[in-house]
Structures are given as C-alpha cells and as structure tokens.
Amino acid sequence: MAQHQQPTEEPGHATPQNEATSRLCVKNIPKYLDEKRLKEHFSAKGQVTDVKILKTRDGHSRQMAFVGYRSIDDATTAMKYYQNTYIDTSKLSIEYARRYRAPAAAAADASTAAAADKAHRPWSKYSEG
User: Fold this and answer.
1) Total-model pTM
2) Do residues 81 and 45 touch, judged by C-beta distance below 8 A?
3) I need a labelling partner for 109 at 20 to 30 A (CA). Which of 32, 88, 100, 124 fits?
C-alpha cells in the first residue's frame, strides 16, 4: 500500500499562494524595534529598499513589518538566512509578502457579471423598468 506524503513548504520555495516577491513579511518583531534598526539588521543579506513597521491607530507596534529588497534573489537569500532566527528575544517568522489588490478591484473582477445583471434591473421588484 503506497503512502502519500503531503508536500512541505520550505522557506524560499514559491507556491501559487506564496509567490516569490522582492518584499518580505516579517512577523513577531520586538514591540520596541524601530525601522532604522530593522533596516540595518536585514541589510546584511542584500540591498534593502524600504522598511515598514505596521502600527495600530494609537501608534503601538503590531509586531509585523515589510522589508523590501532590490531583487527577488536578494529577498529569497534573506528569507532563507533569517527564517526562525532571533532579534533580541523574538523569534522571526518570514514569508514573501502577498501582492495587494484593492478591495474594489477584487470585487469588480469577481462580480462583473452580477453587476452587469443588476444594472438592467429596476430598483424595486414592484417597478417595471
């Protein structure tokens, strides 16, 4: 009887849901870490173009950041190197950043047919045209 093994996702290998990009999503960063120190830390494995730490509305860190690299190769090298490493006492989890699509564009693509159908309907089921 043959056993099937589930493919395991390794850092640096792109899957359809995890397409390789030049931006990395870094999770579980220390709350007190600033963008300057994060950029210095990740610059050791490639040319960092930008760093963005996500914050709540009141300015507290969400312990997540995006780090942009000049190329996909730099980002892949950095992801392999920094995956499951530590900044101070926080263990980092790194993945490729997903491509962002505006909610309006995504909704327009998904419901183009439905929107066209509704455009020709009257505003009420009791109206005629």
Assistant:
1) 0.65
2) yes
3) 124
